[in-house]
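WARN retry 2 of 3 for item q-0093 after timeout on previous attempt; input resubmitted unchanged.
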Amino acid sequence: MTDIIARRQFAPLYIWLDIAFLCVFLALLLMKKKYMTVLVGLVMGVVYMLVDYGIFHLVCHSRTISEGHSLFLVLLWMSVSYGFTNFTWIWLWLSKDEHLFEWSLLILGWWFCCPLLTQTFAPDAAPIIIQRTTGEIGRAHV
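OK item q-0093 returned
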């Protein structure tokens, strides 16, 4: 059977820019008193982390990262970023938020801008490579 590999590659600047965005997004949600939205996003960030680090890494041994980088910290960032952003956006849709267009524009705009900013300001940075596999290759390091 063929091994399927899910791989992401990005410069470290991408992580720092995204963390800054998450802080701004969180602050905006709190300023607008979207407490349940924030709670849903934080809970789902934890759920993503439990699945990604707990199941894919600790149980299945299918997660690897390039040398010199912390698998735990990168997965923590990825899980919180995806879980928080995706589920706050879903919650805003489900609650029919009056500023849904603006929230959507902010999130989608960031998803386009972050890679462009990273490429502009760190074009030659050594990439962090993280992957998840479905077979024995998952036990080897990148």
